[in-house]
Structures are given as C-alpha cells and as structure tokens.
Write a structure and sequence with these properties.
The chain is α+β, with helices and mostly antiparallel strands and 280 residues long. It has one domain: DD-peptidase/beta-lactamase superfamily (Beta-lactamase). It has ten helices and ten strands. A hairpin with a 6-residue loop joins β1 and β2. It starts with a helix and ends with a helix.
Length: 280
C-alpha cells in the first residue's frame, strides 16, 4: 500500500506487536478500495481452529453442487464425540446415538469452534487432503491443511502442519467476501455463522465500537511447559460505518505472553485498522 494512511498504519501496528513476545503476522485488505498492507505476510503460522473456515467453504461448495444438503441428517455415535477436546456438541449429546442436520453440525463447528464437529465434517468431505486440494484449486497455495483436530491432539508439533501465511488467509477471505466461490445463499449462510461466532470475542471484536459487525473465525493452541503458546489467532471481515469492509488477519505464534496480553494485541491492531478505514 503506497499511501500516507498505509505508512502511518503500518508504523502503528508495528509498535503494538512487541507485547506479544512472539511472531505476529498481519494482513489488511479493503475490497472496496484495494488498499492492502501486510506485516510478516508470507511467513507460515499455525492456524489451529482458523482452518474451520476453509473447511466450511469446502462443505458449502458441495452443498452448492448438490452433493450435500444443509437439511440432510447425520447419525452420530458416541465414538464420534471424543472426550478431552473442546466440544459443545458432545456436552449437548454426551451419549451420542443422535441424529443432527448438517446445518447444526456447521453451526457448532464454525460458531462454537467444535473440534468433534470439525472432524465429522472432514470425514464427510474426504478428509483434510480434500479441503487442502479445494483451497489450492482456488489459487491459494500458501496454506496447508493436513491434520484433523484428533491428530493435532496427539502431539505438539502436529499443529504446525496446518499452516497459512497471513496474505493467503486474507486472499481466501477476500474470495469468500467477493462472492466468487460460493452461491449467494451459501455465502450469506456462512457469513451469519461467522458473525455469530462465540469464540475469540476479545480479539478482533474486543475494542471495536459496540454493534460493529464482524464475521470472524478464531484459533487457539495450548501452552507448552516452557510457557510458549503456539497460536493465538483471529481472522475476519469487519463492517465499516460507510458501507465498506476491511479484511483483517492477525496471527500470533510462539508467544511468551499471557492470554490477556495476546488477545489485547489482536484487539489493539483491529481498533487501529478500524480507525484508519472507518471514513472514506
């Protein structure tokens, strides 16, 4: 971005990332004007649950093609609902043996970031490799989707196999926003799930004016014995007062800061980005 506003914004963001005590990647894009800014935009960051966004895109593509239907029913066994993982779906149906719709499964996976729902959806569309192939087929190759949530829980290093650059995630969000990759109905449906997202509320949305519409997907890792948190992420599309939107990706990797500080770094970046573009 060759503009006075872009140069000033870059300087502000760079001042804000130090408290994260890790690697911070940022991508900013305003579809209506073309303004774009990245910091560590080509570096590889572990996505964690952010990858449920491209998974949802792949599921809804099959809905658009008629292979799947939001109203179709899926039988879930108790074995589908693994313990020791984040799963509001399991909390609601602890004994399994229940029929849910694809709509319900997507809502749990995207809006509530359900890990069991995620892996059931992966199995439905052909596994992580199928989603990876779909994303690469869109021309977005600086992203890798390799391991399920269950596989990520087996070892600390596995999460790094599911990575994206900030610039690549920004391009994927832009493709979704522009309406080029889903039908209007599916686009509006996924938008609503992301607006309703209950996780990561202190990140992109944390310091924005009350009532600001944010369609987003967060992602979080655990913290290892050395006090390092591999991933604290939030990515999304923020509505601006004048009718435009700003796409914002913030990845925080290998951070030694506490959770509040990591969340606040993301919230602070989102606020200065919103301030920079809230007026045409």
């Amino acid at each position: 971005m060759a503009s006075v506003r872009g140069d000033s914004l870059r300087a502000e963001i760079e001042r804000m990332i130090a408290p994260a005590r890790g690697l911070v990647g940022v991508a900013v894009h305003v579809p209506e004007t073309g303004d774009t800014l990245t910091i560590n935009g080509d570096a590889r960051f572990p996505m964690q649950s952010v990858y449920k966004f491209p998974l949802a895109l792949a599921v809804l593509r099959q809905v658009d093609q008629g292979t799947l239907s939001l109203s179709q029913e899926l039988q879930l066994s108790k074995e589908d609902l693994l313990p020791n993982t984040w799963s509001p779906l399991r909390e609601r149906y602890p004994d399994g043996n229940v029929v849910v719709t694809l709509d319900e499964l997507l809502t749990y996976t995207v809006s509530l970031s359900d890990n069991n729902g995620c892996d059931i959806l992966f199995r439905l569309v052909g596994g992580p490799a199928a989603v990876n192939e779909y994303v690469h087929g869109l021309g977005i190759t600086d992203m890798a989707i390799v391991a399920t949530e269950e596989e990520m829980h087996r070892g600390w290093e596995v999460q790094f196999q599911n990575w994206s650059s900030p610039a690549a995630m920004c391009r994927l969000l832009d493709a979704f926003y522009s309406g080029n990759i889903l039908s209007q109905r599916s686009r509006e449906y996924l938008w609503s799930l992301m607006v309703q997202a209950a996780t990561g509320s202190g990140r992109l949305k944390g310091r924005l004016p009350e009532g600001t519409v944010v369609a987003h997907k967060s992602g979080s890792s655990g913290t290892n014995d050395e006090g390092i948190t591999a991933a604290t992420n939030d990515v999304g599309i923020i509505a601006l007062p004048w009718g435009g939107h700003v796409i914002l990706v913030v990845f925080v990797a290998d951070s030694a800061a506490d959770k509040q500080t990591r969340d606040e770094v993301i919230a602070d970046i989102a606020r200065v980005v919103w301030d920079a573009y809230s007026h045409q």
